[in-house]
Amino acid sequence: MLAQKTYDATAIGAIGTMTYGGMVAVGQVDDGAGYERFATFVDDLEAMERQGLVRIESRHFESQTGKRHVDMVRFTRLK
Prior knowledge:
By secondary structure, the protein is an alpha+beta fold. The protein is built from 3 helices and 3 strands. The two termini are 18 Å apart.
């Protein structure tokens, strides 16, 4: 859901950013399972990359939990 919304909001050729904070902003709960839930949205974005819709430029890893969860993905929309 978040990956699709971020994709839709990004113009073709533009850079989009999907963040953990953005997930919380669209109504997801910031609880102990938040990073795992965000990981499913990252998986969705990676699937879009395999389909040729986006190119993932970078991932940022959080340092608060010590588990290095992805908390931000930057991508270019290709189609």
